[in-house]
Amino acid sequence: MRIDAISIFPEYLAALDLSLIGKARTAGLVHLEVHDLREFTHDRHRTVDDSPTGGGAGMVMKPEPWGEALDAVLSRGAVEGAGEPMLIVPSPSGERFTQAMAHQLAERSWLVFACGRYEGIDERVMVDAESRIPVRRVSLGDYVLNGGEVAVLAIVEAVARLVPGVVGNADSLVEESHEGGLLEYPVYTKPPAWRELAVPEVLLSGHHGRIERWRRDERLRRTAQRRPDLIQELDVDGLDRADIATLAAAGWHVVENGATSGGASPPRFLAGPASVAD
Ligand code: 6GU
């Protein structure tokens, strides 16, 4: 996978050289290039921003340096055989970044990140890019950062670890938080008792079936407690009887939607502690 990132703070992205992603780069699995947007300015002050047209607070990133930077990065990658590019623009007004999106992005051969600062990038930069390549505006969550760099660190780490070979043990990608729409189960190591706190007995039993069931129940209980929005999204047909019992104990019940069509079985969904009241 090739990754290009354009920023006015290229040093901010130096962290990608460390640890997992650094190793993936060394192993040739991920080819990362960071570009300084100011290299694509032509004035003495290397200006990248200007006041918002129509008025308002803050500054907006000018389109000209972005246009030149994207043209240069895209033509270089094309010459070097990077494949089909996708432009990712981190923005608090983008679609929410999720593990599902990380999987989609990990399928691509070439990602280009445009890090905005200030109040954002002149909209025409994205419209112009969209006429040539797919563009996704992506948000980490419902809060505001000063720029896209932290989002690029997060997105690149989430995506690159899904590239085959980057994470040594592929099994560890399967049973982790957000895979299968549930949070991860709690984990323990030795010693079996620490500060008078014992590791749950079942984990010492050597009984793989019971351990697997306990872990699944912990995932369901935690998710019900901390992330009811994820429980609401679960596919009821993917739940077994034990799942349904565990969710019921956590206040979530399978209900059938009365509106049936033809001979098909009625759609079922989970109703939680809050939706019972309304
Ligand atoms: Cl991707 N960018 C900025 N500036 N703020 C954010 C964000 C992105 N995601 C959440 N907040």
How would you portray this structure in words?
By secondary structure, the chain is α/β, with parallel strands linked by helices. Helix content is 34%, strand content 18%. It has helices at residues 19-26, 63-79, 99-106, 123-130, 149-160, 171-174, 208-226, 228-232, 241-249, 273-277, and strands at residues 2-7, 31-36, 49-50, 60-61, 85-96, 110-114, 135-139, 193-194, 197-198, 253-256, 268-271. The strands form 4 sheets. A 5-stranded parallel beta sheet has the order 2-1-6-5-7. Helix 2 (63-79) runs parallel beside helix 4 (123-130) and helix 7 (208-226) packs across helix 9 (241-249). The longest helix has 19 residues, at 208-226. The radius of gyration is 24 Å and the shape is globular. Bound molecules: 6-chloroguanine (6GU).
Write the layout of secondary structure elements.
Elements: E1 2-7, H1 19-26, E2 31-36, E3 49-50, E4 60-61, H2 63-79, E5 85-96, H3 99-106, E6 110-114, H4 123-130, E7 135-139, H5 149-160, H6 171-174, E8 193-194, E9 197-198, H7 208-226, H8 228-232, H9 241-249, E10 253-256, E11 268-271, H10 273-277
Parallel strand pairs: 1-2, 1-6, 5-6, 5-7
Antiparallel strand pairs: 3-4, 8-9, 10-11
The chain binds 6-chloroguanine.
Residues 90-92, 138-141, 143-145, 147-148, 151 line the site of 6-chloroguanine.
What's the quick description here?
By secondary structure, the protein is α/β, with parallel strands linked by helices. It contains ten helices and eleven strands.
Features:
alpha/beta; five-stranded parallel beta sheet; 11 strands; binds 6-chloroguanine
